[in-house]
Amino acid sequence: MGKGFFKVPVAVNEPVKDYAVGSPERARVAKTYKEMYNSTVEVPLYINGKDVKTGDTGTMSCPHDHKHILGTYHKADKKLAQSAIDTALAAREKWAAMPWEQRAAIFLRAAELIAGPYRAKINAATMLAQSKNIFQAEIDASCELIDFLRFNVQFMTEIFNEQPQSTSGAWNRLEYRPLEGFVYAITPFNFTAIAANLPASAALMGNVVVWKPSDSQVYSAKVILDIFKEAGVPDGVINMVMGDPVMITDTVLASPDFSGIHFTGSTHVFKDIWQKIGTNIHNYKTYPRIVGETGGKDFIVAHKSANPAQVATAIARGGFEFQGQKCSAASRIYVSESIWADVKEQLVTDVKSFKIGSPEDMSNFITAVIHEGSFDKLASFIDSAKADKNVDVIVGGGHDKSKGYFIEPTVIVTKDPKYTTMCTELFGPVVTVYVFEDKKWAETLELVDNTSEYALTGAVFSEDRYALEEAIDGLQNAAGNFYVNDKPSGAVVGQQPFGGARASGTNDKAGSKLNLYRWISPRMIKETFVTPVDYRYPFLG
Ligand code: NAD
Questions:
Q1: Is 495 a domain residue?
Q2: Dmax of the chain from CA atoms?
Q3: Are 277 and 253 in contact, with CB atoms under 8 Å apart?
Q4: Number of domains observed in the structure of the chain
Q5: Is the CB of 497 under 6 A from ligand 1?
Q6: Can 14 be counted among the known catalytic residues?
């Protein structure tokens, strides 16, 4: 064990580079993007530190240029999924016994590799295969991921410092053991940072991991894996398997050593997994930790006292950045009637001014949605809205998948506050507005609270403190991350721990200590210095 009480570097948020025209960072990413676009990669499974090729492959392409192939990735069969589990378990004893400062050093090193030599590559990968514009790639794949790695190390030491009182006669020590078994990380397409953080946070706390990335994020997952490897994550500690998600998950959940799941993705998938865990509960050696951050139907509610330009800007950014594919993206908007005309005018002007196209052209604000399934779903909701006499599509409404999966940023206005696009998570650049009477503030807050099964993010805009207080109080269960006079997206690690409740997840707040607690099982050790030798207490006479 350690020979000192080591202090870790104080975690600071990675500064966001601005990629201004003519800047060296812009030139670096542009060059890397081109090189990567013009070559192909093959992504094997990664089990026990070894690349495993199966010959059963899927292709990776650019959502904004879907005929362009970026490479292939290999898919696991049941035997290989089992082998990832066995490998993780074989690595467990040594990894769990490794002094915490060594684990910290590995992940701090990973953070610095991303901040420096890998920055252009991980950003370019996220632009190419997840269609993020350069700014969205920078704040996700570089800054948020660096922040997760740095802050988690600091949070780990804060947890280790939490120790019980002792007396002169007995020393009480809390030991923060990793879980007994392995952790399964299932990650979504939309954040490179989340894809890396779900396996890394559990591994940092001493756990071994089987990681299944999304088929639509494998390209940048490979960059993450290369970074972890170079940073020194030992063989077997994080194993990456791609393939049929149901088969892999069923294999994992059948293992008696399954001890926790770190999931981010859609609500119905998480609920299915939870149910399967329940069905298998008698087979497990320990009660598995179930952590899931899932869907959202995030709102902005604007009081009559709100500044219309602020509201319009919050919708433009909060609703449409990364094509509305953030779990925190604003998608249902409630605006007081007396400010609606001004909000509408600026919003329509702003949305019409968005430049749409490939992220390679860094002046584009909007790029493509992730894949054809998502495109078709969004197009069908938009077409239904256009055909519905009861709603107005006030801007956007177009879509075209001939080259890339492009959906025009679309604003729908409805008179029905329960219209389908006010309730359903669409996960795309579609925002629906409901205009309410100024005098119905209290009723509208109730509507916001009751309309959706989700409770992820939400925002209130008002210059009136009484109205703000009413919203903060009335909507206390409607969002895990609540914003006052700000857009509901863009949480920063170490500043706004992120997660929602209700159908949005277990609210274990990624990017905070709360999340790390889920990956440890404390052991209390009481050591008595002078041990009694006679059972008789004084009261017995
Ligand atoms: P998704 O649910 O389609 O996929 C997520 C992961 O689950 C992928 O790895 C996928 O392969 C796997 N998966 C899919 N079906 C499965 C099954 N039947 N069994 C086991 N695994 C399965 O989600 P997505 O499209 O990648 O991501 C978008 C969703 O994620 C949205 O609902 C969004 O709100 C949510 N999300 C939430 C947060 C949050 O913090 N709350 C963050 C990001 C994304």
A1: no
A2: 92
A3: yes
A4: 2
A5: no
A6: no
Q: pLDDT tens digit string along 379-434?
A: 999 999 999 999 999 999 999 999 999 999 999 999 999 999 999 999 999 999 99
Long-range contacts: 154-157, Cβ < 8 Å, 24+?
154/8, 154/10, 154/11, 155/512, 155/513, 155/516, 156/100, 156/104, 156/204, 156/205, 156/516, 157/7, 157/8, 157/100, 157/104
Q: Which two tokens stand for residue 541?
A: 């006479």
Any atom of ligand 1 within 6 Å of the Cβ of 269:
yes
332 Ramachandran zone, left/alpha/beta (phi>0; psi -120 to 50): beta
For the question of residue 162 being annotated catalytic, the response is: no
The pTM is what?
0.98
Q: Which two tokens stand for residue 172?
A: 């009480």
Residue with tokens 């060296």: 24
Mean pLDDT of 292-311: 98
| Residue 525 CB coordination number (10 Å) | 10
Q: How confident is residue 1, by pLDDT bands cut at 50, 70 and 90? A: low
Residue 507 CB less than 6 A away from ligand 1 = no
| Pair (453, 510) in one structural domain | no
Residue 40 falls inside a structural domain: yes
Residue that the structure tokens 């020979």 belong to: 3
Q: Calculate helix-pair angle for 267-279, 245-253, nearest 10 degrees.
A: 30
**Closest atom of ligand 1 to CA, residue 510:** 40
Residue 49 and residue 228: Cα distance in Å, rounded?
A: 11
Q: Which amino acid is at 42?
A: E
How large is the average pLDDT for residues 87-102? 98
Q: How far apart are CA 117 and CA 531, in angstroms?
A: 57
Structural domain for 97, as ranges: 24-294+505-523
- The C-alpha atoms of residue 233 and residue 227 are separated, in whole angstroms, by 9
How many angstroms separate the CA atoms of 133 and 15, rounded? 18
CATH code of residue 518: 3.40.605.10
Residue 442's CATH number:
3.40.309.10
- Chain segment 7-34, per-residue pLDDT in tens: 999 999 999 999 999 999 999 999 999 9
Residues 6+ apart with CB under 8 A from 97: none
